[in-house]
Amino acid sequence: MRVVIPGGGYAGLICALRLARRTRGQVAVTLVSASPWFVERIRLHERAAGSEPVKRELAEMVAGTGITLKIGRVTRIDPRGEVLLGDERLPFEQLVVALGSHVDLDGVPGVREHAFTLDAASAASLSERLPALAARRGRVVVVGGGLTGIEGASELAEAHPGLQVTLLYAGELGGNYSEAGREHLRRSLTRLGVTLEQGRVKRLQAGSVELEERSVPFDACLWAGGFVAPELLRQSGLSVNARGQALVDSYLRALGHENIHVIGDAAAPVAPPSPMLMGCKTALPMGVYVAERLSRLSRGQDSEPFDYLDTAFCISLGRRDGLVQPYRQDGSPTGWVFRGRLGAWLKEAICVGVSWTLAAERKGLHFFAWRKTGRKLSPPAAQERRLAA
């Protein structure tokens, strides 16, 4: 069996490592990445604040596993069995799309022209500007009240006390948290000197965020207003949702394509567990599941549908504070949280644990696991009929 995995992030890398080790050369695994470096996206808010990234080469991370690594950008996916990498054609029997997501730069006018993001290159550019801005009490507006925006605002404010940091959000800040979690979140942001403003953004202009009834001036803007999947998925003929994510069944197969699995941020399950938040905590389970499924298929065995239960929401609030919000079986937040230095320690332990997990997978140590609901799902054919109706 020939398996091609476009995407060298969390989902694609752990899928390639697990599959290669499980099948021991019986399956030809090719991992394709646009960059030769593995990007720790869960630490990009730290990079924006000025920390030096730990650079890890993908070639080193897959060395000795039998994985063929190709560096280049995928230009086309032919669902009939071929991936185009520039002028090179990569045939496949099974395709695992793990192309991730990127910040939505076109959903609001002016974002592409006037904002930084927490993509790797933009975060590095922002970090170079911040010291000079902090020296003159510059204004930084972070747009987005989700995990990315909160972590970004906290990190910038703590690392550069001279900055005037504003977190601009729509809706409820910390809506997925318990009352204790929301209280700690607001208290921590206030302690760091972050100004909170609520409003819906109409457009960005040079030097200001334009809301419906007012404008918020800035010297630099960090946009964390949402993520979308690569347009390549739609262009390849896969069924996608409004954010460009491929719709997948309970086996994480693209609808209508039994030989194409989609994992990580690029996937949107149409059956429980659905919806699944984008991020490392869902990318790793999806990558491991598909690796195990393909390993079983190579031996002529079937597998159970993918099952996942979100257990907690973890967020850093600078280097010395954090918040971990556990969830109940029904998905509601518990009334208690881990916070402060303990929360920061737990968040850092999780980040370090991800690196250890990938290193262990390379050596054939498969200890990664996740909590499951135990629900029995309807067959994928029934799911597709229900979606069509």
Average per-residue pLDDT, rounded, comes to 92
Radius of gyration from CA coordinates: 21 Å
Number of DSSP helical runs: 11
Q: Which spans of ≥5 residues are poorly predicted at pLDDT below 50?
A: none
- What is the overall silhouette? globular
Oligomeric nature of the chains? single chain
Strand fraction equals 15-25%
Largest sheet: 5 strands, parallel
Helix-strand category: alpha/beta
Report, as a whole number of angstroms, the end-to-end distance.
35 Å
Percent range for helical residues? 25-40%
Order of strands across the main sheet: 5-2-1-9-20
DSSP summary, beta strand count? 24
Describe this structure as you would to a colleague.
With 389 residues, this protein is an alpha/beta fold. Helix content is 32%, strand content 24%. The chain has 11 helices and 24 strands. Strands 5-2-1-9-20 form a 5-stranded parallel beta sheet, with helices on one face. The chain has a 4-stranded parallel beta sheet with strand order 13-12-11-17, with helices on one face. Strands 6-7-8 form a 3-stranded antiparallel beta sheet.
